Amino acid sequence: MPVGTDIAVAAQLLEKGELVAIPTETVYGLGGNAFNTEAVMKIYEAKQRPQFNPLIIHSNTLEKFESWGIQLPVEALRLAAVFSPGPLTYVVARSPLIPDIVTAGNDAVAIRIPGHPLTLGLLARLDFPVAAPSANPSGFISPTSAKHVEEQLGNQVAYILDGGACKVGIESTIISFLEDTPRILRYGGIPEEEIIKLLGHPVQPPPPASQNVIAPGMLSRHYASKHQLIHDDPAHHLGKYNPERIGIISFQTTYPAIPFNNQFVLSETGDLHEAARKLFAAMREADKLDIDVILAERFPPRGLGNAINDRLRRASVAE
Ligand code: TXA
Ligand code: MG
Predict the structure, then answer these.
(1) What pLDDT, in 10s, does the model give residues 80-135?
(2) Is the pLDDT score of 183 beyond 70?
(3) What is the distance between the alpha carbons of residues 170 and 278, in angstroms, rounded to a whole number?
(4) Would you state the pLDDT for residue 214?
(5) In this structure, are residues 31 and 132 in contact, taking their beta carbons and an 8 Å threshold?
(6) In this predicted model, what pLDDT tens digit does every residue of 157-181 receive, in sequence order?
């Protein structure tokens, strides 16, 4: 499959119902024409994604979503004025134009305007929304570069639009407007604190994670690594393993007892944005090491730290 930066080629392939990997500021998406049921089927097949797990649809303006019968409630519009294009996804009432297979039969649809210039240019050329889950096999680590996509789903896509390394590096925050008070469904690129500040009132927390899907996107086991990953203060676990066979994902700290090459310090200066940007690549690299366990610190529970902890916690859940 070709890799390139040609949005005209990408647009043509999407129009024909082919799959195109698209860069966004969060992670790469596996894109298909959301109005084309067969294209959407291909997305589920390529990812081996269970069909009860719905897809986010992407476009470049709110006006286009409105033209497809999708209205944002007032509070969502207030957020969108500040955070879109950007790493925020809105779950709102669905429109009959959106095929069942996109929403997995739900009465709600998830929409996002991604903040990546190349993909915004692509979306501007299209008169349909692009359904795009993260471009990884279901349950695995999300891709933050074209190379990551190529390694895992290269054979499944007609084209990889290469937009460089993802600047946010962690998926969008998902917020639902189906209840009286908005509810965060997934922590992500826009911190909860910023949402609360803008709205001027608290929001509801995500429902508890579950192995038995009670709500879409709430599968606890996700971001699976080959090696066991323990999400806890590494100091509590260092003594249990051969230090040569431990990998560590830390915020700022280096661990003298562990080989330097086995350590992934995500931000020496303590910047949670930098840490989020580097997280998934570090998880992939750690997984390639010849080791027995990955120890991952708990990040400060503020700002993007909540999203980082969410991903590490899901990666740590035993199968
Ligand atoms: O940053 C992102 O959001 C990336 C980029 C490509 O946009 N996309 C992404 O998609 O992370 P995916 O499919 O990996 O995760 C989307 C999550 C899933 O957990 C899904 O269950 C949830 O969004 N979701 C999608 N539609 C929904 C709906 N109608 N109601 C509730 N949750 C929904
Ligand atoms: Mg995903």
Answers:
(1) 999 999 999 999 999 999 999 999 999 999 999 999 999 999 999 999 999 999 99
(2) yes
(3) 9
(4) 45
(5) yes
(6) 999 999 999 999 999 999 999 999 9
Q: Is the CB of 26 under 6 A from ligand 1?
A: yes
Task: State in Å: Cα 245 to ligand 1 middle.
Answer: 35
**Ligand 1 centroid distance, CA of 62 (Å):** 18
The dihedral formed by the CA atoms of 177, 183, 186 and 191, expressed in degrees to the nearest 10: 100
- At 279-306, the pLDDT tens digits run 999 999 999 999 999 999 999 999 999 9
Phi-psi region of 117 (alpha: psi -120 to 50; beta: other; left: phi over 0): alpha
Largest CA distance in the chain: 60
Q: Which atom of ligand 1 is nearest to the CA of 172?
A: 1
- Residue 131: its H or E element: strand 130-131
Give the 3-state secondary structure of 160-222: EECCCCCCCCCCCEEEECCCCCCEEEECCCCCHHHHHHHHCCCCECCCCCECCCCCCCCECCC
3-class state of residue 142 by DSSP: coil
The helix-helix angle for 146-153 and 272-288 (nearest 10°) equals 30
Q: How far apart are CA 156 and CA 149, in angstroms?
A: 10
Q: Residues 115, 85: contact at Cβ < 8 Å?
A: yes
| Residue located nearest, by CA, to atom 6 of ligand 1 | 29
Ligand 1 pocket residue status of 24, Cβ below 6 Å: yes
Reported pTM: 0.95
